[in-house]
Amino acid sequence: MAATKRPEDVVTIDVYAAKGLLISSSGHRYLDVRSVEEYKKSHIDNALNIPYMFITEEGRVKNPEFLNQVSSICNKEEKLIVGCNSGGRSLRACVDLLNAGFENVKNMEGGYSKWVDSGFAGEKPTEELKVACKFRP
Asked: Which fold has domain 27-132?
């Protein structure tokens, strides 16, 4: 059995590399692991949205069906670029995906906020949403 993957095992790329892969014919897909609320406000075109965490009254809770949901629409050989709002949730999601046997996952450094800051599209999240969605380990 392969060794358990850790955050330092995840390939991280910047938003420029991510955009290049997404618009090329390389077959990469963007997996947005932000909450449905975040995704509905603004997102990268053609993104898949499967939340890694949910916002509950008790705070953030990991989506217990995350891996099953990803596996239901993506095969383990698919090339995925994983992003959230700033890079924390997507890094953890990449670790889980690698440990589940997904072979080609990359974390988008800086997340959707960096994507917007780089002028690619979309709107920055409101301050209220940033506070509500701040990751708590």
From this structure: Oxidized Rhodanese; domain 1 (3.40.250)
